[in-house]
Amino acid sequence: MGMTLAQKILKNHLVCGEMIPGQEIGIRIDQTLTQDATGTMAYLEFEAMGVPRVKTERSVAYIDHNTLQNGFENADDHRFIGSVCKKHGIYFSRPGNGICHQVHLERFGIPGKTLIGSDSHTPTGGGIGMIAIGAGGMDVAVAMGGGTYYITCPKIVKVNLTGKLSPWVAAKDVILEVLRRLSVKGGVGKIIEYCGEGVKTLSVPERATITNMGAELGATTSIFPSDEITHQFLKAQGREEDYTPLSADADAIYDEVVEINLSELVPLAACPHSPDNVKSVEEIGAMKIDQVCIGSCTNSSLLDMLKVAHILKGKTVHPDVSLSIAPGSKQVLNMLAENGALAILIDAGARILESACGPCIGMGQSPNSKGISLRTFNRNFEGRSGTKDGQIYLVSPELAAASALTGVLTDPRTLGDMPEFKLPEFFTINDNMIVPPVAEEDMDSVEVLRGPNIKPFPVSEPMADEITAKCSLKVGDNITTDHIMPAGAKILPLRSNIPKISEYCFAVCDEKFHDRALELKKSIIVGGSNYGQGSSREHAALAPLYLGVKAVIVKSFARIHMANLINAGIIPMTFQDEADYDRIDQMDELSMTDVIAQIQKGDTVTVTNVTKGFDFTVKVDLSDRQKDMLIAGGLLNYTKNNA
Ligand code: MIC
Ligand code: SF4
Question: Which atom of ligand 1 is nearest to the CA of 482?
């Protein structure tokens, strides 16, 4: 039987388990990446493991999230990460060098390799045929130490692309269409594999836009074949030797097939407050806008910027609109400067930001009250922009630039003929902002620099056999990790200080949660479906751990967050009968006995709602390894016990 591309790469890296969808498999990881907002924790965890040098083929640390330095915290963390990298064998991409996913695609990604990153948009690497997966910091730390990475063997969905995009319709519209059809939960437990004739019409940066935002489907990852277009891209990056042609077998069997005719797509936008709330520009109409932000790991490539420059050339940003642009990497910014496009952007009135995540993670450029902001980003969760009532629409760079000029949502197809936008034959290569580690024999000479904001991470305890605790919080469906552990310029500098950052835990849903949880000492959270979607931030598990949360009972979980809970020693439980969700209120007392034996023996645990006087069943549908890890009290304890 033929294999899909994803299956081939997974099989090549299989360490344990059987490639049967739904079963746990362990894979060998060739490359890792971290960014600074999750990296400090990941490197503290790596240090705690006591492995002197990373064992991967390539590990890279990027500084791109916490670049607003209005206090010592972020700068201290950058220095900490830089020094750890130097010592332990990790390449360090300095602040200013760009967004992790963009730079990794340009300089390090290799078709057929496996990559895990402590950032949910790591699947960007799927644009050049990698199996690139977002993970929690602890999983990345273990992989750096040479440990196996475990996932649930995914189902493979084929997205069969036919036709060719019409002028001014973009790669962003492809992924928005997939999100419109499949929703933010549609990819859970699946890898999305792009195939078909239409693939050949898409450049590597366009493919990377699509795989990047596959994270919003909840997918394990997304992947494109590695073909002649990949070859040309790697050659233009001076890395032709990294090219291997890779594709699915002609008779590969997929679990699902989605047909998309590129020729039929139209400009789309994801409306507030979810990436799957997708409408066509026509349906939304000529809405007045206040702000446009172009950039983020989804749409900040040279190709994107050249399109924007073409649209803005000789024009002025509408007087009622603020336009900011963050090119994705130093390479992109450099090339824009060299070819004159940067002058065009500046001339039109764009506010040029440094090559970093910036407004995407609420690091500045929050819109005005109730402001309508068009962004080329990948997430528009409520409050993420930094303005609670901001109305964020996710759109293509073409649509964003056209609208920045008119002040209203504008169909880019009104721009007239579209010139052909081609990638350069050679990119400008200068890796002077990537610091290599010292040789192993010199590692003792490197001092790790720790700022006062870096506090040890909370240590979890082995699982208790009886858990009696109140429900400290009840929330609804689609809770994101931005709800659980918000980001933004004020909170992000606390990423290496769990006691402090936990003051903001769930503040978006309930400002009193932190105090209540601390007062209760131990508690249980109850939630709806797709709980923990979005970011990979393990802080969304570490802060609840610090606040005494012992278990989370929900209708269903998002993949990375569930793994992070297990790593932190918090039991993820799902309702066997979802109707029981309605029978629990916040502050009800819940009790379970013989927890360890029940989890060891089967996949269910009986919970008593002491307050309301009834029993209900929850599923703890985990692999034996995950069960052992929970019983040991999380990944670090488990690793220590097994060492
Ligand atoms: C995000 O886009 O939400 C982030 C910020 O990049 C996160 C990581 C983080 O919270 O640090 C992600 O996507 O994993
Ligand atoms: Fe950075 Fe935004 Fe991409 Fe996250 S989604 S890595 S914050 S640019």
Answer: 3
